[in-house]
Amino acid sequence: MFNKSIIVSLYFLFLFLSAPSSASNSLPDIGTVGAGALTIEKEKEYGWAFRLMANQALPIIHDPILNHYIEDLGQNIVGHADSVKLPFSFFLVEDSEINAAAFLGGNVKIHTGLFLYAQNESELAGVVAHEVAHITQRHLARMLEQQSYSNPASLAALAGSILLALVSPAAGMAAISTTMAVTMQSQINYTRLHEYEADRIGITTLYNAGYDPYGMANFFGKLAEKYKYASMPPQMLSTHPLPETRLAEARLRAGQFEPKRVNSNLDYQLSKARITVRYNSFTAATAINYYQSQLKNSRYQLKAAAEYGLALAYFKNKDYQKANKLAVQLLENDPNNLFYLDFITDTLLALKQTEKAVQLLTPYQQRAPKNAVLTLNLVVALQEQKNYKQAEKLLEKFIRSHPDHILAHIVAIDLYKLMKERAKEHATKANYLSLQGRFREASQEMGSALVYTKSNLDQARYSASIDYYKKQDLRLQALQ
Fold it and tell me: Is 62 annotated as a binding residue?
């Protein structure tokens, strides 16, 4: 298992994308230079390896409705960005720190703490747009290129250090420290432009994607003001310093666009309520009081989101009847809302009304069979109903179209345990391990699947998987 400190060490690379500086009124549009230093194909390889490591070491939230929301928001921003040369992936990490980070290969990490602090969707989208700009402008590649000018060997050394940490933590961390010590000041001087460029490009993308262009400046401005005198500012202020000149320029740039009135977004407010109750330090009683107070005093942006938050709080307190009553009301008013469909399933299963949950979800899932929220909720309901064969049928079809969906594999492992399907249990566990880069363990699990299966077809498939894992392991080692 990768140590979390390795993630911190690797993320240290990105601190150099945000060194404090004075603003420039006219930023050079240096675009996507750096391709010579780190090709797109090589960046994809490093991005692939990073995601494997993150899957194993970071507290990634495997919540289908939150993942659905953040992926939609992220892809909307990417769809309105220029110079997109990589596929993007957005994932949530359970961390109350106010932060987000971009990594190689189109990976964008978003902390749950951002939801707790951002007042509206445009503010959250502003942070995401900023991180997307870091990737589209290939800022890490450009930092590597700048370093290689003064030390031609440093590019290969730094790139190798990143992946060395994957297989040898102590050696990798030492290599990173040594490599990053070279020409430190020239890196800072070079990368101070990156934050301004990410702001400039991100604000344009933010506006084109339909958000308030002031969202980024407003969020960063409130953050800077709140923690101006703090002895322990949040991580974001360490990785994204906010001098007054940078904030002023961001506001001026936002002001160049036509005024845009953006209504409060329900899905964002529902996501914020879900994170507040389920991925926060609130006790159930505190959460109940918080949302009851909001509703009593009309201190909410959207009433439905406050009611959803209260329903979640009731559920957390095991007041399943109260939670279900609110869930029914919310769904009646908005019958296609995925947040409500997901939550009402929780309440029905908690109340042992399994048949009702299956009847409710089935027509929705049939209309959208590739939707993770609907399919995985229905699979769990069918499993509770002991309708294992139907659950297996839906799950196998879903995994074929979503081979990298970790939660689906977790659900499948539990299902095969209940079915006493030892071969399929081991095979699914092997696939799950491979999504974490643990290819040697995956090969061992698939070997166990071979022992249990009596199907010639499955034997051939499992043997092919073992060969594939060996090749992937070599692929990972080749990046050292």
Answer: no
3 state DSSP class of 111? strand
Integer Cα distance of 31 and 424 in angstroms = 48
Q: Residues 45-51: what's their mean pLDDT? A: 87
What distance in Å separates the CA atoms of residue 9 and residue 412, rounded to the nearest whole number? 34
CA distances from 96 to 83, 276, 317 (A): 32, 10, 22
195 assigned ligand-binding residue = yes
CATH homologous superfamily, domain 281-351: Tetratricopeptide repeat domain (1.25.40.10)
Measured N-to-C along each axis, helices 303-316 and 284-296 cross at an angle, to the nearest 10 degrees, of 160
Q: Are 276 and 287 in contact (CB under 8 A)?
A: yes
Positions of CATH 1.25.40.10 in the chain: 281-351
387, two tokens? 């309708």
Instruction: State the DSSP string of 64-103.
Output: HHHHHHHHHHHHHHHHT-SS--S--EEEEE---S--EEEE
pLDDT digits (tens, 9 = 90+) for 367-420: 999 999 999 999 999 999 999 999 999 999 999 999 999 999 999 999 999 999
Query: In the structure encoding, which two tokens stand for residue 139, read together?
Result: 């800022």
Across the range 187-212, mean pLDDT stands at 82
199 is catalytic: yes
The question of whether 29 is a catalytic residue gets the answer no
Q: How confident is the model at residue 480 (pLDDT cuts 50, 70, 90)?
A: low
Parallel, antiparallel or unpaired: strands 107-111 and 89-93:
parallel
- In whole angstroms, what is the distance from residue 317 CA to residue 347 CA? 12
Run of H or E including 42: helix 40-57
Single out the catalytic residue among 45, 123, 199, 392: 199
Q: CA 451, 455, 457 angle in degrees (round to 5)?
A: 110
Residue of 131, 145, 425, 445 marked catalytic: 131
CB 104 within 8 A of CB 134: no
pTM: 0.85
CA–CA separation, 397 vs 377, rounded Å? 15
Residue 369 DSSP symbol:
T
| Residue 68 marked in a binding site | no
